[in-house]
Amino acid sequence: MGLLFTLTLEKLDISGAVRTGILTGGLGAYTTFSTFSIEAYTLFQDGHLFKAASYLLASVVLALLAVILGVWLGQR
């Protein structure tokens, strides 16, 4: 994040809010997804096929249900 900030975003004429959104939103999402992927991969590699599949399915389904609930609540 520091490297991206220094090499690119610091030189651009953008607001602090946009810079923060790019750094924490973009990189934060990327690192979270990377962690999710590594955890699933490690479970598969360690032979925990059911745990890995359950982890993947539960993570995706629960995230989707949370979005649906959020949209529903937002429309109320």
Give structural notes.
- This protein is mostly helical and 76 residues long.
- The protein has one domain (2-74).
- 82% of the residues lie in helices and 0% in strands.
- It is built from 3 helices and no strands.
- The protein has helices at residues 2-7, 16-45, 49-74.
- Helix 2 runs antiparallel to helix 3.
What distance lies between the first and last C-alpha atoms, to the nearest angstrom? 38 Å
Q: Can you tell me the number of structural domains? A: 1
Order of helices and strands: HHH
Residue runs with pLDDT of under 50 for 5 or more positions: none
**Mean pLDDT over the residues:** 85
Radius of gyration: 18 Å
What characteristics describe this protein?
single chain; 76 residues; mainly alpha; 3 helices; 0% strand; flat
Helix and strand layout, with pairings?
Elements: H1 2-7, H2 16-45, H3 49-74
Helix pairs in contact: 2-3
Short account of what is shown:
This protein is mainly alpha-helical. The protein is built from three helices and no strands.
